[in-house]
Amino acid sequence: MNKQPIRVAVTGAAGNIGYALLFRIASGAMFGPDQPVALNLIEIPPALDALKGVVMELDDCAFPLLKDVVATTDMDEGFKDVNWALLVGSVPRKAGMERGDLLGINGKVFTGQGKAIGANAAPDVRVLVVGNPCNTNCLIAMNNAEGVPNDRFFAMTMLDENRAKTQLAQKAGVDVTEVSNMTIWGNHSATQYPDFYSAKIGGKSAAEVIGDEAWLKDTFIPDVQTRGAAIIKARGASSAASAANGIVDSVRALTTPTAEGDTFSMCLCSDGSYGTPEGLIISFPCRSDGEKIEIVKDIELNEFSRAKFDASVQELAEEREAVKDLI
Ligand code: NAD
Ligand code: LMR
């Protein structure tokens, strides 16, 4: 095996998601069992001791694929030559807050990170934003990363997609692998629209297979929209292992060809598809050929779906207005 390592920066590496994520990247779950990796772990000074402990544990795993670990509080060093930047580090919400309430606290972090990515990262860098509110934090990073094309920036709705798939599979009494084309439209927030009309179970419309529109509208949608809050209430902390799993699934979805006929949910820079404002970071149904990502443009949105999607996009437009000084 003499492939060059893929260098991956993870911010907030000593946090809860970081702790659930790094070991999966280093074990090969993200880029495959033949692909060496190097990790650039970025933290703020108060978390440096904890980060040193995480590095000790990575060492103690003797991962065959892990070729280098950099642990730093310096963003220039942290983003140096990275092929992937996973922007996780930021404050999570507490019970009773919406993710958008974090904009004032977390938004400004992403100007500096965007600049440091533009100045230091490898020419092929791709960025996945997880720290909330992830769509608008991604918008801020994208607009501050000089020289990095907009189509390299993504924010995560894969966790929402996975949540929605499991809810539909459990309701229909089928294996989760039977659920496909599960699109989350809009914002990673309580306005997101998990589209049960275009989702499929065993290749047929999920709405028809389940045959209970009242449940889909009044239980399924709010359950997916508020699942993050339900986990905070139950666990006393926001989702971490399932979020880390969503990050692994997101990067795999972006870097491997999508199965025939299927789609995955990803927030990316709108090109105006489905009549949305260009430049906003919006979750769409996407496909990948392993390198290039395309928005799937021919999904029919009925009146109900259109109204739900529009409301979520409207929220993103308002978030953009709130951070206009940072972009
Ligand atoms: P956490 O508090 O356990 O860890 C966050 C880490 O980030 C801490 O170690 C902190 O020191 C570090 N950090 C803070 N500011 C930083 C900066 N400027 N640079 C580098 N590191 C910094 O939180 P967590 O549970 O790991 O969650 C992290 C973020 O991910 C939160 O904003 C949370 O809301 C979000 N999240 C998003 C999704 C999603 O689906 N998009 C899912 C779960 C969590
Ligand atoms: C989630 O969806 O679990 C995360 O975005 C954390 C949160 O604040 O809900």
Automatic annotation (TrEMBL):
The keyword tRNA processing does not apply. Keywords: NAD, Oxidoreductase, Tricarboxylic acid cycle. Substrate binds at R93, R99, N132, R163. Its EC number is 1.1.1.37. CDD domains: MDH_chloroplast-like. The active site is at H188. The keyword Oxidoreductase applies. One of its GO terms (molecular function) is L-malate dehydrogenase (NAD+) activity. Residues 7-149 form the Lactate/malate dehydrogenase N-terminal domain. Belongs to the LDH/MDH superfamily. MDH type 2 family. This is Malate dehydrogenase. It comes from Coraliomargarita algicola.
